[in-house]
Amino acid sequence: MAFKNRKGIGSKLFGKFSLRAKTVIFCILCLFAVILVLKNSYWDEKNKVTVQNSNKNVTQNTVIKNSSTGENGDKSDEERLEKEYKAAQKFFSDKEYDKTIDKANDIINQNDKFYKAYNIKGIALCYSNNYDEGMKNIDKALELNPNFGYARFNKALAYELYGKYDDALDWYDKDLEIEKYVWSYYGKASIYGRRGDISNTVKFLKMAIDISPDIKDIARDEKDFEPVKNSSEFQNLIK
Question: Where does the chain cross the membrane (predicted)?
Answer without folding.
Answer: 21-38
